[in-house]
Amino acid sequence: MNHQIDCQWMENMAFDVTIDGHHMTIDANPELGGENRGPRPKPLLLASLAGCTGIDVVSILNKMRVPLEGFRITVSGSQTEEHPKIYDKIKVVYYFKGNNLPMDKLEKAVHLSEEKYCGVSAMLKKAGLIEYEIIIE
């Protein structure tokens, strides 16, 4: 399967992006001529990683019959100083909420996502280190 997005310049540094019929505005910081009308492109990579692995983990845990009361993910990226500035280190933290959650199943779901299913993770690993942490709240 191939994916294609449409990215249309609006004005200044703002672009309207269409992904599968959904619109989003991407913009630059005001210091760079933007108007802060939408997220920056690089942090969207981190959001894509969170969404990709999150979908995997929820799907896997559903198949394992692990009921969740809550689930969230934070992703932070450390950029290099030189251009092109890339994320050379990314940390993904999974926060699970529920009663008597089995850590072994949580770890297995996260591991399967990071090593087998999440294509965003596989791509970003080629650029730098990705660390994972699991926290039960």
From TrEMBL:
Record Gene3D superfamilies: 3.30.300.20
InterPro entries noted in UniProt: KH_dom-like_a/b (IPR015946), OsmC/Ohr_fam (IPR003718), OsmC/Ohrsf (IPR036102)
PANTHER family for this protein: PROTEIN YHFA
Protein name per UniProt: Redox protein
Organism annotation: Anoxynatronum buryatiense
